[in-house]
Amino acid sequence: MVDIRPFRAIRYTEKAGDPANLIAKPYDKIAFALQREYYEKSPYNYCRLILPVESNKYEAAQQRIQKWLSEGILSKDEEPAVFVSRQEFKLSGRVCTRTGLIAAMRLYSYGESTVFPHEVTYKEPKTDRLNMLRAVQKDLEPVFLIYSDPENVTVDFFAEATRAKPAVEVEDSFGVKHAIWRVTDPERLKFVQKAMANKRLVITDGHHRYESALAYRDEMRKKAKWTEDSAFNFQMCYMVPVQEEGLVVLPTHRLLTESKLTNDTLEALERFFTISDVAPTVEALDSFLKSHEKEHAFCVYDGSKAYSLLLKDEKSASELINAGCPKDACLLDVVVLRDVVFKHVMKVGELKMDEHILYAESTRSALEEVDSGQAKLAFLVNPVNPETVWQIAQKNWRLPEKSTDFYPKPVSGLTMMDISPEEIL
Q1: Please, which of 171, 249, 255, 261 could form a disulfide with 375 given CB 3.0 to 4.6 Å?
Q2: pLDDT > 60? residue 329
Q3: According to CATH, what is the number of the domain 252-382?
């Protein structure tokens, strides 16, 4: 049973200024240049909490939160609430909307078959976020999960809630409009709690934060007196139905920093792929991938030339797959790329993130990384379908790291949840 609760959110007050100058991308999406941009926007920008520039960043975040609360920049709501959250954005010339629920969700270990991961995680980011939790004792950003709602029970709940005026409505610097609605009525809260009780949830974004929250919970249970209602047993989550039309997954392209595309490599790839020249432009590469989205298709760019790769034979590829799940189920593009292209053909060995392999959110940025010398090769892929992510995760199979990019990310800075020892939900 999924236990979700309303919580007394900590939010910006009018004293903080224009919300457009306060909100930020999730901490792991903030590069150095964007960090500087956020700092310049406002002395109260949320980046100063989730990714401070100071070397003692955890202490800096904790001190800022206390200072902003005492100054009235931040304020904790008197009444517990859940929030309906909506993003409106443009993609390929059309307007999309994605609506979900922000609530405190009880933390479940993966073995409880209630919350499922879909990607591999790393030790360093988990250590970083655990240190942040220890310092601030607040959930600063929601974990993003999906669930199934074929009867549209929660979808109808969202539609009713969003008829009212939103508590906050703001457009970010990337053109995405964000709005949240507070729901405090006891009957409506009971309704949505019941609607979510039998759900199974898959983490789409925030694996490291979720696993850090589990570790923090276990630490706190050893340190202090607690009950099942103690807030640190919960995580602030943003939950979206997998049937939502605006649930968009973008591809995450792979960039290799040390490997080169030699004639020998191309010959070896021809055993598995039909290889053709393609114009090294964003338009041509995107067009090829789009026209072959039902096949196992890739593009590779080396700074001067680009090639398209179409898998010839699934059977020969599946023999090389090492995905920890049935080969027919896990013959996904990102797995084929990792196990067939990188490991078998190119023999690249272990790829350390930010050292041997980089990731790009768009074809344009992937090409620019190669052109600038940051990487030697860009491998371009099609996105994974949200339904595929949902199905694979529930069978306790994990995709390679950075397999998905659910777009847009929930914005940071609209809600914060207190998980200090004395906080009860």
Answers
A1: 255
A2: no
A3: 3.30.1760
The DSSP result for 379-404, as a single string, is EE-PPPPHHHHHHHHTTT--BPTT--
Burial of 94 (0-12, 13-18, 19+ CB in 10 A): exposed
Degrees, nearest 5: CA angle 250-254-258 = 165
301-315 pLDDT per residue, tens: 999 999 999 999 888
Spatial distance between the Cα atoms of 383 and 332, rounded to a whole number of angstroms: 10
Spatial separation of the C-alpha atoms in residues 311 and 309, rounded to whole Å: 7
* pLDDT score at 330: 65
In this prediction, residue 354 carries a pLDDT of 66
pLDDT score for 399: 75
Q: Tens of pLDDT along 390-408?
A: 888 887 777 777 778 888 9
- pLDDT confidence band for 182 (50 / 70 / 90): very high
CA angle 51, 57, 58 (to 5 degrees): 100
Q: Where are the domains of the chain?
A: 4-248+408-418, 252-382
The rounded distance, in Å, linking the Cα atoms of 47 and 35 is: 7
By the 10 Å C-beta count (0-12 exposed, 13-18 middle, 19+ buried), 395 is classed as exposed
Highest mean pLDDT among 36-50, 109-123, 338-352: 36-50
Cα–Cα nearest to 120, from 311, 314, 325, 297: 325
Q: Residue 102 in contact with residue 196, Cβ under 8 Å?
A: no
Instruction: Give Cα 355 distance to the centre of its chain.
Output: 21
Measure CA of the first residue to CA of the last residue in the chain; give whole Å. Answer: 17
H helices of 140-271, where?
153-161, 186-196, 207-223, 263-269
Tally of CA atoms within 13 A in the half-sphere of 303 that contains its CB = 16
* 87 to 16, 45, 108, 125, 296: CA distances (angstroms): 22, 20, 27, 27, 31
- What's the one-letter identity of residue 72? G
Are 91 and 98 in contact, with CB atoms under 8 Å apart?
no
3-state secondary structure of 215: helix
65-123 pLDDT tens trace: 999 999 999 999 999 999 999 999 998 788 999 999 999 999 999 999 999 988 777 78
Q: What is the pTM of this model?
A: 0.86
Q: How far apart are CA 412 and CA 172, in angstroms?
A: 11
